[in-house]
Amino acid sequence: SKLTSLGQLEMTWRSRVHFHPLLVRVLHKSRLRYYGKPEKKLDMPYQAYFEVADGSGMMSMVLWNSLCPEWYNSIKVGTVLLLEQYAIKNSYPFKTQPTPGDSQMKRFPTIEISLNVRDPPTKISIIPEEMVKPEWGLPEVKYRFITRSELDDLPNNHSCDVIGLVTFVGRAERARKREHGEDFWLYRWAHAIDGTSDQPFILELFATSQPDVFEHIHPMTYLVCTQMRVVRDLTENPSSTIYLTTSNESQIFITGWHKGQPYTKDTKVKNFIQWTKTQREDDQMKKTVIGGYYPFPRPPNNFLKY
């Protein structure tokens, strides 16, 4: 059928009601958002953002309400979608923006693709990877993997992807979203090493929409975290409190979940796998720790400073 591109949509969307089908690849996926309120009678108040791209650039795509439980888990980073009967809206100005792996990619930030059950009822088709043709010109998923030795030179809030061998994982902890609110964020701390430094990656992992992964992070698993943000305490000693925290678009993968993921082709991931083959499991097992209370960043040594 006749296809359109994201670039054409941006130029013509105001003058059209019906749009030609779109063929896009998913480059980023946000966590699932629940926006239900007691006074609003919505059956499934869910929303999820994806960043999708074709040969012309990248645009946000929003999955609404009952389409979320139906499609959220099937649409992964790297999935190719054929979209029919979708709506185009002005984009929401305050949403988070992932950092694209390809810095040259054009963005279309003013509009977004809206997928709904009605008005119009969207038709979503997943194209299996083996049926994707090179002439479609769909971009590959690109990453920004860093090694632990590179981390100390990165600025605050820099976006990156990491892979490491888990040596410590803390218990799940809760933090209030707002001071007097009843909603909590769930998170846990983890350490992962990659052989490039004596220091581990210190990772603050908030529960994303992957409970099956979040609950099963344990020592000796290969952990991949994407779209992480660098956090450094710029006041005290900057090198002592550098860690990585998840963002709205972070994805977490552990041993058993890596097969078929686009990052398996990345050079730094391959280098890490080569390094693990030189390690003895018994030696690493002796250094692993699980659970317990992990105060981080650590409080100062004396009470006056605190």
Verbal overview:
This is RADX protein. The chain is mainly β and 306 residues long. The radius of gyration is 21 Å and the shape is globular. It has two domains: 6-136, Nucleic acid-binding proteins (OB fold (Dihydrolipoamide Acetyltransferase, E2P), Beta Barrel), CATH 2.40.50.140; 148-290, Nucleic acid-binding proteins (OB fold (Dihydrolipoamide Acetyltransferase, E2P), Beta Barrel). The strands form two sheets. Strands 1, 2, 3, 4, 5, 6, 7 and 8 form an eight-stranded mixed β-sheet that branches. The protein has helices spanning 6-12, 67-71, 148-151, 211-214, 267-277, 281-286; strands spanning 22-29, 33-34, 46-54, 57-64, 80-84, 87-90, 107-115, 123-127, 159-169, 173-176, 184-193, 201-206, 222-231, 243-246, 252-253, 289-290.
List the helices and strands and how they pair.
Elements: H1 6-12, E1 22-29, E2 33-34, E3 46-54, E4 57-64, H2 67-71, E5 80-84, E6 87-90, E7 107-115, E8 123-127, H3 148-151, E9 159-169, E10 173-176, E11 184-193, E12 201-206, H4 211-214, E13 222-231, E14 243-246, E15 252-253, H5 267-277, H6 281-286, E16 289-290
Parallel strand pairs: 4-7, 9-16, 12-14
Antiparallel strand pairs: 1-3, 1-5, 2-3, 3-4, 5-8, 6-7, 9-11, 9-13, 10-11, 11-12, 13-14, 13-15
- Name of the CATH class of the largest domain: Mainly Beta
- The CATH superfamily of the largest domain bears the name Nucleic acid-binding proteins
Radius of gyration: 21 Å
Number of domains: 2
**What class, by secondary structure content?**
mainly beta
Number of strands: 16
- Strand % is 25-35%
Taking all residues together, what is the mean pLDDT? 91
| pLDDT < 50 runs, ≥5 residues | none
Helices and strands, in order, run as: HEEEEHEEEEHEEEEHEEEHHE
Overall geometry comes to globular
What is the number of helices? Answer: 6
InterPro entries: NA-bd_OB-fold, RADX
Pfam families: RADX
Protein name: RADX protein
GO molecular function: single-stranded DNA binding
